[in-house]
């Protein structure tokens, strides 16, 4: 049986700890996926204070995560949805949750998602404005009605 070649992945180093995995949600998502799928991988932790020359040659923009497939380095796709440019099952699972939490919390408790969470607001605005989301969501008054007995009990 042929040996599976490990996928190479470049990820961000921790601030102040250049040899430790850092705080990057995009890198986390990539290596978490590889772990869950049991894909063998080799991790390259990139110190953003002193990026290695080889890394800048394969990633001129200096962004991570970066994945090597078939001897070609590929940048992880940025996009408006959780998995990049196209809506995925993750978005379809995630989108209803903040909708059904935000409405009763604002109505009964006066709580709103903090304005400084710009990326979250942009994401919610995007998914909440989808024609399919609009077509399938419950009206706010019915979301409030569902929660009223639980909140006022």
UniProtKB/TrEMBL annotation:
Catalytic activity: L-dehydroascorbate + 2 glutathione = glutathione disulfide + L-ascorbate; RX + glutathione = an S-substituted glutathione + a halide anion + H(+)
The protein's Enzyme Commission number: 2.5.1.18
Domain GST N-terminal residues, every copy: 24-78
Name of the top EC class for this enzyme: transferase
Keyword Transferase: yes
Keyword vocabulary terms for this entry: Transferase
One GO MF term: glutathione transferase activity
Pfam families, sorted: GST_N_2
Family: Belongs to the GST superfamily. DHAR family.
Protein name according to UniProt: glutathione transferase
Provenance organism: Cinchona calisaya
